[in-house]
Amino acid sequence: MRKGLVLEGGGMRGLFTMGVLDVWMEQGGITFDGAVGVSAGAAFGCNFKSGQIGRGIRYNVRYAKDWHYKSYLSWLLTGDIFGAKFCYETLPRELDVFDTEAFEKNPMEFYAAVTNLETGRAMFKRLRDGGESDMMWIRASASLPVVSRIVKIGRYKLLDGGIADSIPLHFMEGRGFDRNIVILTQPEGFVKEKNSMLPLVKVALRHYPKAIEAMENRHFMYNRETAYVAEREAAGAAYVIRPDAALNISNLETSEEELMRVYNHGREVGERTLAEVRAFLA
Q: How far apart are the C-alpha atoms of 19 and 39, rounded to whole Å?
């Protein structure tokens, strides 16, 4: 049996995921052979591999009102609504140091999902040491269209992994992970609708027709994936953790109370499901 973990994205909804993961780290004994993170699932979930309890919520609260971290001003001045230099260089290297040594030593495989703009398809990059290159892939995974610059790594032009594969359970099963826990950031019964920002997306990605096509069909893809997750859950091959209700939090939320509300709900659900998670993985 190979145990896998799938982490959906969702911007600040990812603090729900961080709450669940912090409970697991505090309680101990919950380990996986591999994990995949999409967007915020990669940006926050990497702290699980490095074993840094509380880091995800700590820096989000501490720098929530810093325009360098996330703001329309950052978008205007840098082209990224989440400041790339601040988020992926200054923060992990200086302000709230990311433990690259622990990340590298942890044998759990960790993949970041990105979207290749030229093909419109998902790519999965295994992150090994948490260093500069890995941070670039995490940045690409979490770079939303329209409000982020295209991330260029080698010959690839990349953006948010959720464009092409929001819940990559198929990917994990294809890698041989046959016992998977899936952490979603939308409640049971959520159905994604067509993106209302498609006109802006078509302008921003006008040179990448395959990526535009992926964005046009994203709601279909997402709803198929949630249906597949439910199918695998019913078959006993997956265990799903999700919020009890819509989290209703903006990506630019600066209120500590709101950020903690989402994080604490993750902790609540993590504690409530802890015994079932242990039994599922046993």
A: 17
pLDDT, mean of residues 29-44:
98
For the entire predicted model, the pTM comes to 0.98
Question: 203, exposed or middle or buried, with CB in 10 Å at 0-12, 13-18, 19+?
Answer: exposed
Q: What sign for the dihedral angle of Cα 180, 247, 112, 66? A: negative
Cα 172 to the center of its chain, rounded Å? 15
Band (pLDDT 50/70/90 cuts) for residue 279 is: very high
User: Which residues, in sequence order, are bridge partners of residue 110?
Assistant: 35, 127
Bridge partners, 37 (sequence order): 7, 112
Note the pLDDT tens digit of each residue in 207-247. 999 999 999 999 999 999 999 999 999 999 999 999 999 99
Give the residue-averaged pLDDT of 195-201. Answer: 94
Structure tokens at 136: 């670039």
Residue 95: the pLDDT is: 98
Question: For the chain, how long is the longest CA-to-CA vector?
Answer: 50
H or E, element range at 28: none
Cα(67)–Cα(107) distance, integer angstroms: 36
- CB neighbour class for 107 (10 Å; exposed up to 12, middle 13-18, buried from 19): exposed
Q: Count Cα atoms within 13 angstroms, Cβ side, for 117.
A: 23
Distance CA(135)–CA(141), nearest Å, equals: 10
Task: Identify the pLDDT of residue 4.
Answer: 98
Distances (CA, A) of 43 to 8, 27, 118: 11, 22, 23
